[in-house]
Design brief:
By secondary structure, this protein is an alpha+beta fold. The chain has six helices and four strands; from the N terminus they run βββααβαααα. The protein has one domain. The mean pLDDT is 88.
């Protein structure tokens, strides 16, 4: 987890995780090694855990790598846009018994 900041997909101020735009599982495949250099393969975005979970629940790694490999493509996707909108309305659970915030 990273320090609290704003999630680029839902806009909530919370702890963020790193989402590889091309999933790490695909990095070892020859196809992706030929198309992208190491720097491109390691590009990603900082998003909250709920948005991250929703992305991986909606699409498998190959689809993410081939079709949803940029922030704009993720934001333009209708099912993900609905999920991000739902997440934006959820309260953030604070660790160690802290109060919930929105």
């Amino acid at each position: 987890m990273r320090k609290p900041d704003v999630c680029v997909t839902c806009g909530r101020f919370t702890d963020l995780t790193f989402h590889h735009l091309i999933p790490r599982k695909m990095h070892r495949r020859k196809r992706f090694q030929k198309l992208y250099n190491t720097e491109q393969l390691n590009q990603g975005i900082a998003i909250c855990r709920q948005c991250h979970r929703g992305i991986h629940k909606q699409y498998d790694e190959m689809t993410l790598a081939m079709e949803k490999n940029s922030l704009q493509k993720l934001l333009d996707d209708a099912p993900l846009r609905r999920h991000f909108g739902w997440v934006a309305k959820q309260k953030i659970k604070q660790p160690n018994g802290g109060k919930e915030t929105k």
